[in-house]
Amino acid sequence: MTSRKYMTSYYVLYACFAVIILCFAAFFGYGYDNPEGDYNAPVCTEVLMWLMYGLFAVTCIMAVWSVVRSVKISMGAKGGDISGVPGGKVNAVSFAILVISLVVGLCFGLGETEFTAADGTVTSANMVTVTDMFMVSIYIMMLLTTLAVVINMTGIVKKTK
Known about the structure:
- By secondary structure, the chain is mostly helical.
- It contains four helices and four strands; from the N terminus they run αββααββα.
- The protein has helices spanning 4-29, 45-76, 87-109, 125-154, and strands spanning 35-36, 39-40, 115-116, 122-123.
- A two-stranded antiparallel ribbon has the order 1-2. Strands 3-4 form a two-stranded antiparallel ribbon.
- β1 and β2 (39-40) form a beta hairpin.
- The longest helix is centred in the middle third of the chain and has 32 residues, at 45-76.
- The chain is extended and about 60 Å long.
- The two termini are 21 Å apart.
- The mean pLDDT is 81.
């Protein structure tokens, strides 16, 4: 029997999926073809931007909450690991993947030239390199996360305590 606490997390996950799908449907379904000069300016671009800001804020809040909760729990813990999950190894590998993805992104972004937007705003070559670095890093981490979820869902790797 699944506990109520876990059912709540399922409902929150499905609610997040629904909001994300609704925002993308609005973006592509309503006013996507909105030409302004030589460019396309979709009507719901701002909705996607606010969705990303909101998801980023929620992620930051949840990360801080998780760290605080973890510290509180570990302060009262006595002895060995009760979950069987090697938390130190997971943290080290996660940090290594982050650093490696940023280095790979930086290597792909080197040599960029400055970017001039349609309104005449100029972005320096350094900032274009930084943007490319973060984008490549996001792609790498998204690919690895998707792979990890697929492996976890298929049950290929099972470990019992």
